[in-house]
């Protein structure tokens, strides 16, 4: 039986990363994001077809996430060396080019497993997206099949709705009125 994650403390993690410049390696833990919102997303594999469309779109919107006090972290089961090669491959050759956030390597698949997105029999992650608040509580998750990319606009809308602290009806956007409980 699947365990609920929303409303609970996000599963802790420590992973190796490649910075968006494709040159530097690092390490990242959930605690590094304390005091900030985190948009954590999983994708199946480097050098695939749908993944670069959403990863580059998220990168292009990075300044909008940053303006909302949110950091971004992409994760797959690939190695940091594969991530580095993909970032350093030109976009017109199915690469990513420079990114505005790091990619983390979940080589052991434990983080994918902890977040409930690992397809055990294939050894890859589903497309999972999680929004974690500054206190480390998981506020939002969406997980779906790997053949459909995610919407950057919807992710930003949900992030801003969560940050607003009010009751947000369908389609709510920043600046809209909240619902009033009666």
UniProtKB/TrEMBL annotation:
Positions of the catalytic residues: 51
CDD domains listed in its UniProt record: PRX_Typ2cys (cd03015)
Any one GO molecular function term: thioredoxin peroxidase activity
Residues covered by the Thioredoxin domain: 4-164
InterPro entries for the chain: AhpC/TSA, Peroxiredoxin, Peroxiredoxin_AhpC-typ, Thioredoxin-like_sf, Thioredoxin_domain
Gene3D superfamilies: Glutaredoxin
Cellular component terms per the entry's GO annotation: cytosol
Listed PANTHER family: ALKYL HYDROPEROXIDE REDUCTASE C, THIOREDOXIN PEROXIDASE
Family: Belongs to the peroxiredoxin family. AhpC/Prx1 subfamily.
UniProt-recorded name of the protein: Thioredoxin peroxidase
Provenance organism: Paenibacillus tyrfis
Organism ancestry: Bacteria, Bacillati, Bacillota, Bacilli, Bacillales
């Amino acid at each position: 039986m699947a365990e609920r994650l929303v409303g609970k403390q996000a599963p802790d993690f420590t992973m190796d990363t490649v910075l968006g410049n494709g040159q530097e390696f690092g390490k990242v833990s959930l605690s590094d994001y304390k005091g900030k919102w985190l948009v954590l997303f999983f994708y199946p594999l480097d050098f695939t077809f749908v993944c670069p469309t959403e990863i580059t779109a998220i990168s292009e919107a990075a300044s909008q996430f940053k303006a909302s006090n949110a950091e971004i972290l992409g994760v797959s089961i690939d190695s940091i060396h594969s991530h580095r090669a993909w970032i350093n491959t030109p976009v017109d050759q199915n690469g990513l080019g420079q990114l505005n956030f790091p990619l983390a390597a979940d080589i052991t698949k434990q983080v994918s497993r902890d977040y409930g997105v690992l397809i055990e029999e294939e050894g890859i992650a589903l497309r999972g997206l999680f929004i974690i608040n500054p206190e480390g509580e998981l506020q939002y998750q969406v997980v779906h099949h790997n053949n459909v990319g995610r919407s950057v606009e919807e992710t930003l809308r949900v992030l801003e709705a969560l940050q607003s602290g009010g009751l947000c009806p369908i389609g709510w956007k920043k600046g809209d009125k909240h619902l009033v409980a009666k």
